[in-house]
Amino acid sequence: MARLLEEFGDLSEVNGDNPFKVRAYRNVAATLRELPTSVEEMVRSGAPLTDIKGVGKEIALKLVDMATTGRLRQLDELAEIVPLGLLELRRVKGVGPKLVQALWRERGVTSVAELEEALATGRLAGLAGVGAKKLEAIERALEAYHRHVGRTPLAEIGAIAEPFVARLRAVDGVERVEIAGSYRRRKDTIGDIDLLVVAKTEAAARAVTREFTTYPEVAEVLGSGETRSSARLANGVQVDLRVIEAEALGAALLYFTGSKAHNVALRQLALDKGLHLSEYGLFAEGGSDAAPATPGAAGERVAGRTEEEIYERLGLEWIPPELREDRGEIAAAARHELPRLVTMADVRGDLHVHSTWSDGKATVREMVDACVERGYEYLALTDHSKALAMTGGLDEAKLARQWAELDELMAGRDDITLLRGMEVDILKDGTLDLSDEWLERLDIVLVSVHSHFELSEAEQTARVVKAVSHPQVNVLAHPTGRVLGQRDPYALDLSAVFDACLANGVAVEHNASERLDLSDVDLIAARSRGLTISLGSDAHSVAQLAGMRYGVDQLRRAWVTPGAVLNARPLAELRRFLAKTA
DNA sequence: GCCGTTTTCGGCCCGACTGTTTTCAGTCG
Fold this sequence. Notes:
By secondary structure, the chain is α/β, with parallel strands linked by helices.
């Protein structure tokens, strides 16, 4: 439904409809993506759809329509008039709704391919507002369009952004360099990198801009001015640099960290209080009838140097960036009831670790030593079961041999506790890939799906529900099967699966690998049901143990407190959960 | 199209950069 509404908004926009109407559709689409309950459920239970933020009479009708027919009639009708290729055109940087309309109505261009052809044959000459430079810009944008589509996983962005920032910090006269944007909010994937710089002098500001535009990884400078520059790196990621006054750093950090929805809500809150919030600060209302207008200023700046003072002036406690998604954090901050979010320091151990016994790159000893080094109190060794033949998965006999090694390795060792675990495959019929007798002897049993992703939702759900209903199972690992940028989640009724986990004392995993599965939205649903969340790095090497921090980030985005995290608990408490006596 | 402890009509977040103009429109974030 969100996708259909979004498409309807996009088509309306290139059709030239009222931009506020377009926004209304997009807002509802965004809200639906975050909605913990499904619209179908609301329709079934008779809950008023206008309770959903941004949904009025018209969109409510469309929701009901979509819930029953699976289609949006108005979208089909609009698609008859407006060529779908125009949506693709909009994704070329620099091509906005107006240009799309001009291209379509005045030149008959309705797709990226046709735009390229029109460029090559000089058919765009004479288009109002389009000169030689604009044509060049479109050509460059088309190259980028083909090279880079989509978002980059958080961990990859970190590897790119951090050395870049270090280089800018080294420029003489640079006071601060901060990464804002979705990277600071720790979103699972990142579209571009936003950098904020405070320079002591104008000369230093020019120097840092020069350093930015000449950075070796920069493939193309998209634009550069006194306060703002943009560049695209060789790998296609866009980086934006803003030079900020120290007095406005907090305001800029706030503004450029977003999210957009959070900012919009904050601005509205400011307006309600007779204030005006921009990236330059929080200002008192200026130019009213009573007060003489101050030349060149909207009013006195009442806050701006730090985020804390701006939030405080708005009557809010400081909101951690991970929460800034307009998911209720502003209301909670106003009540001073923001949750105490889980941190890396709360994590006492790793509950999903592989070794050379299956497809890991490091030995058990290396993994155990690395976990000691990380300060963990315990870890669970969870190699694959025999169904995953390509990983060298373990059958009962091999498991017995592994345990002999573990006994030897851990004898007399009291620096860490090693839990005997396994990541047991959920077979196609929902049975488990290890005998009951051996399941019972394990300290911790993870179960997960690694095959038959193509089953129908009903079959997949029944399969997973059956698996987690087995009395020996403790954790459902990577529940949705997604791999960022590579594989979409399989069809699954996550609500039904969560219910089964709750009923059976099974925790759901957040897999802190390139999966980041469950997603933040799924984690919110899990947390609000009272499920226990197990954090596992799914490390197949020592280096991958460090991925845990990205998992903690996602938990924080989902408002998860330490109490809900299985491996934030002391060993004795963890054991009680695993014994299902908790 | 949505929304309302000022409003059922008139708003809807706001500023920088670019290019094409010569005071502004389009686009982006």
